[in-house]
Amino acid sequence: MNDLVIMKSQKALTTSLKVAATFSKEHKNVLQSIRNLTAENSAVKKMFAESTYVNDRGQEQPMYYMNRDGFTLLAMGFTGRDAMKFKLEYIEAFNRMDELIRNENNLPQTPEEQLQLTMVVTNRLVKRVGKVEARVDHIEKTSELSEIQRYQLLQARKKRVIEAVGGVDSNYYKDTKARKVFSAFGKDFKKEFQIPRYDSLEKQYFKKAMEFTRNWYPDFVLQREIQNSNAQTSLKI
């Protein structure tokens, strides 16, 4: 992620090559997207400057420089798991470079100074991105269960209650008393995780909730009731 934004002719710019590499896209596809944008509106042409670079085989190939507006317009359509993170990194890099350019007294004059300045900006950006990722991770962990997780938890609860009453062929289950055990499980579950309802459980407690469900037993009184019910035999005439 180094050198996302460079300084050229005292302007904060990036290139189609850097965009392609950062967003894991084919460079030829990025070039085509830029050409499509510039063809649609003449005002967009001011945001991009066509240039060339030399590839690994020593061949001269086309590329584009673009300013902040050009990058924003180009990246607007980028989607995917990491797209938002990379967009934020670029925005931050543009902001930093613009700030340095506005401060003419601190403007680096030599390539060495530019490199040193870029490294400083990049290090600051990495730290900020790390904080953003930590916040995103926290939000993910504290969000409620997904639909799949809720289904898995409900199925585990059903299985455990049926096991606790002796199976679907047991007297207790056939006498439709199992709902009493479901109710007991629900009270214990909500008490254990201190929640008002099942669907308010946070994702970070999903594994613990599944473990609790698999190891849950009714209290002693309810167990005796189940045992007594299942011990009874039907009178056959």
UniProtKB/TrEMBL annotation:
Classification via InterPro entries: ORF6C_dom (IPR018878), Phage_regulatory_Rha (IPR014054)
TM ranges: none
NCBIfam families: phage_pRha
Domain of life: Bacteria
Lineage of producing organism: Bacteria, Bacillati, Bacillota, Bacilli, Lactobacillales
This protein's name: Phage regulatory protein
Pfam family, one: ORF6C
Domain annotation ORF6C: ranges: 114-226
